[in-house]
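Lab meeting minutes (informal)
Scribe: AK
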Amino acid sequence: MKSRYVHTNIIAKDWKRISLFYQRVFGCKPIAPQRDLRGEWLDKMTGIENAHIVGEHLSVPGYDENLPTLEIFSYDNMESSNEKLINGIGLAHLAFEVDDVSAVLKKIKEEGGGQLGEMVKAEYPNNMIATFVYAKDVEGNIIELQSWEKKRE
């Protein structure tokens, strides 16, 4: 059986705002066309009567320009009782490896996101040191920032 990872979907209150956040902070790029989806097939697939989805896919840095993607969508009618917790059941966060965790965290805050917990350094096998911090995008989705370096001896 062959398989490959294709995308991660984020349902946003304002898909354009979230899309711009990921473009500005991480350099993600929109992949045409923008989506405007509706029809009997979508109603059947989602189980939502008269479902209507708008949004777009974003390429993610470090990979082919078409896959995998972040799929940023908004529905006309959305459930808003979805508190995002780092220890909540289900998908917890998106992770990005970056050169400078502090600089990217600063950019996240400048773009309207926030920080969750403290920035930490941890020693790993093979003389590696990792820097980690959890952040939040403009709608509260959790993002892990990480960088790796060889321990200086």
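Next up, CB showed the second protein from the same session:
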Amino acid sequence: MTFTPPPETAAWRHLGARTGFEVVYFRPTGRGGHRIEGCTTAVEDGMTWVVDYAIEVDRDWVTRRAEIRSRSVAGSRHTLLEGDGEGGWRIDGVPASRVDGCLDVDLESSAVTNAFPVHRMRLAAGDAADAPAAYVRAADLTVERLDQRYLRVAGDGPGQHYDYEAPVFGFACRLVYDGSGLVLDYPGLAVRAL
């Protein structure tokens, strides 16, 4: 399945697990990939935080670099993830075997990062695939492995529909994507605002 190119900008209203807003900008790179720059501000469990990010994906939507900054009452943090495109990672310059085999970065703070595996895998209706990701927590930017699974299903209405699972959280839902492969509805987390 081929998606249309992403728009110049997109936005999500975060609700349910947290209250907040995310804005993202897509910039094509000279190598056929994209640079995705965004910011999420939120209130969650009575705490406020801001996460700024710049993520580079190659032409196959494999994450190659993610620079992430966060701010909260606990202070400011920064981390840099660099992927070799084959599942090897360095976090702040140090090899990170705990996320070996992951091709995507998934930011806890973001709805846009669920676009990466869908673009990369290009599943046909009825097909499923595992998509482990280097998962970056919003509050402290710790990085851990997040096992995920996507099953493309025939859905009612426009767009593409995927049954999504993150077993470590006991979480499953149906994600709805637009023609450019961006989430329109992420139950319990976000809805597309633009």
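CB comment: The two ends are 23 Å apart (CA to CA).
No objections, moving on.
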